Give the backbone structure.
Amino acid sequence: MPKEILTSQICDRMGITISAAMLEEAGFEVVRKDKRAMYWDAADYPKMVDAICSRLQETKNNDIPPPRVREKKTSTAAASSTKTTVNNSDEEEL
């Protein structure tokens, strides 16, 4: 077994997507960073599984939160042309 394991390898092995922040919140420490890649102690993998399972168990009776609303990003040019179109429509109705 390797001494270090990447966050992506942990996700692949568990079959779910988790973040490095989740692992840090569970008390695990990054062994090494290489640019954006975070390496963890591979020996901690069984404890990581236990921690994630415990976290999921804690949430199973939580209320379902409302859906997140995402604002659409528009460019300035698109927003200007939309305003122009709206103004033109308003003038035609008068």
